[in-house]
Amino acid sequence: MIGLCGWDTVARAERGRRPAAGAAEPGGTAIFLRNYWYVAAWSGEVGRAPLQRWLLNEPVVLWRRGDGTPCALADRCPHRGAPLSNGRVVGDDIVCGYHGLGFCGDGSCTQVPGIDDVPAGLSTRHYPVAERWGWIFLWMGDPALADEAAIPDYHWNDDPGWAGRGETLPVAVNYTLVRDNLLDLSHAHFVHQKTLATDAVVDAPVKTEFDGESLRVIRDMRGIEPSPFFKRLCGFNGAVDHRQEVTFTPAANIVISVRVRSTENPDHAVENRVLNAMTPETDRSTHYFWSLQRDTQLDDAALTDAMFTANRDTFFEDVAVIEAQQKMLDTAPEPAQPVRWHIDKGVDRAQRWVAKLLREEAAQTGRAAAAG
Ligand code: FES
Ligand SMILES: [Fe+2]
């Protein structure tokens, strides 16, 4: 029999609660991992006009140079603090709309109105940028540590062997509540009655695998009744084998693989990938970038739209639950002995892991500050 267990005190500090006094910088900035790539935008959102986006409590301005290269700077002019995003893109540079300071993509100042020679070293903060698979990634920590090899793998987003679409959902919660929702899919039985619900998802054993690079939460459900989603959209009627693998990589990335196969006709099978990048906007809001990709009927645009709509409707159901959860976490005191059981395995493991990474990053930042 699987028993109940108490709340993990390490994980509590990292959950979607307001940070304790002294536990974080003003605004709670220390609750976010910084030396990681985060999805900042869809490629199509960034063009020749400045785009303002708040990421990890910081205002950022994004634009494209003349050759299409995306750039990102702190959206706070170092002169008097006006948002650079209220200015204009001129050539490759962005020019502040207040008094005309100009900056190029690496943050160097390129023009000071009324002064012929720009003072050496005049610059503003820049963020390393990479564009992959239809998404624009920003490195939110020390630029010297940015390594494109560490960009999380979302290649299904534009892989010709897959088809699908996605969008961004604004969610009024700390990003951890989105992450934890995805790491425990047993909620589908209760929250998604019309789409993803199966009895099996509650009863099936949960396996977790952790290799130091990623955490996987696996449910293997054999000979079960297909969920309404797979009945309606993929034509499954009889019993199916249904395998879910939820893979989490820090800071805020989850790829869900769902494989469904008819037990009577093994040739009837489909694999979906749900890509989830949960980028913090503030302590209490998240840019939830998601995309649903499948490996069959690639040219069926109507199926793409139907799957997108069905998935979005399920996410709306999630958003309603976790936004209410966030309000409760913010207003009610912690219970002395919150309840946990086997469905929480993946959530607990991720919370402990990220709490450890936050401690390590804080120590590393402290050492760098002391040395500098
Ligand atoms: S505030 Fe930007 S140039 Fe003055
Ligand atoms: Fe859900």
How would you summarize what this structure contains?
Helix content is 23%, strand content 30%. With 372 residues, the protein is an alpha+beta fold. The chain has two domains: 37-140, Rieske [2Fe-2S] iron-sulphur domain (Rieske Iron-sulfur Protein), CATH 2.102.10.10; 155-358, Naphthalene 1,2-dioxygenase Alpha Subunit, Chain A, domain 1 (Alpha-Beta Complex), CATH 3.90.380.
Any overview of this molecule?
The protein is of the alpha+beta class. It folds into 2 domains: 37-140, Rieske Iron-sulfur Protein (3-layer Sandwich); 155-358, Alpha-Beta Complex (Naphthalene 1,2-dioxygenase Alpha Subunit, Chain A, domain 1), CATH 3.90.380. Helix content is 23%, strand content 30%. It has helices at 9-12, 175-183, 188-191, 200-203, 228-234, 301-331, 345-371; strands at residues 37-42, 51-55, 58-64, 70-74, 88-90, 93-95, 102-103, 109-111, 129-132, 135-139, 163-171, 207-210, 215-224, 240-249, 253-262, 269-282, 285-294. Strands 11-17-16-15-14-13-12 form a 7-stranded antiparallel β-sheet. A 4-stranded antiparallel β-sheet has the order 5-6-7-8, with no helix packed on it. Strands 1-10-9 form a 3-stranded antiparallel β-sheet, with no helix packed on it. The longest helix is centred in the last third of the chain and has 31 residues, at 301-331. The structure holds FE2/S2 (inorganic) cluster and fe (ii) ion (FE2). The site of FE2/S2 (inorganic) cluster (FES) has 9 residues, from loops.
